[in-house]
């Protein structure tokens, strides 16, 4: 599975982003578990998932700041 493009993330709705974030966190947990038990073959996938999580959280944060009232 390739890394997520930022344009693809921006095109998603808030519900889709939260679902995507949940799925990525589950995948991250499973990858860490596989790594600890010595079953992980693609170590680079951990880095990809971590960056995908950061991308999703960045877009969620941008949207929250954009919708917040200006003080």
Automatic annotation (TrEMBL):
<keyword id="KW-0689">Ribosomal protein</keyword>
<dbReference type="InterPro" id="IPR050063">
    <property type="entry name" value="Ribosomal_protein_uL29"/>
</dbReference>
<dbReference type="GO" id="GO:0006412">
    <property type="term" value="P:translation"/>
</dbReference>
<dbReference type="InterPro" id="IPR036049">
    <property type="entry name" value="Ribosomal_uL29_sf"/>
</dbReference>
<protein>
    <recommendedName>
        <fullName>Large ribosomal subunit protein uL29</fullName>
    </recommendedName>
</protein>
<dbReference type="GO" id="GO:0022625">
    <property type="term" value="C:cytosolic large ribosomal subunit"/>
</dbReference>
<keyword id="KW-0687">Ribonucleoprotein</keyword>
<dbReference type="InterPro" id="IPR001854">
    <property type="entry name" value="Ribosomal_uL29"/>
</dbReference>
<dbReference type="GO" id="GO:0003735">
    <property type="term" value="F:structural constituent of ribosome"/>
</dbReference>
<comment type="similarity">
    <text>Belongs to the universal ribosomal protein uL29 family.</text>
</comment>
<dbReference type="Pfam" id="PF00831">
    <property type="entry name" value="Ribosomal_L29"/>
</dbReference>
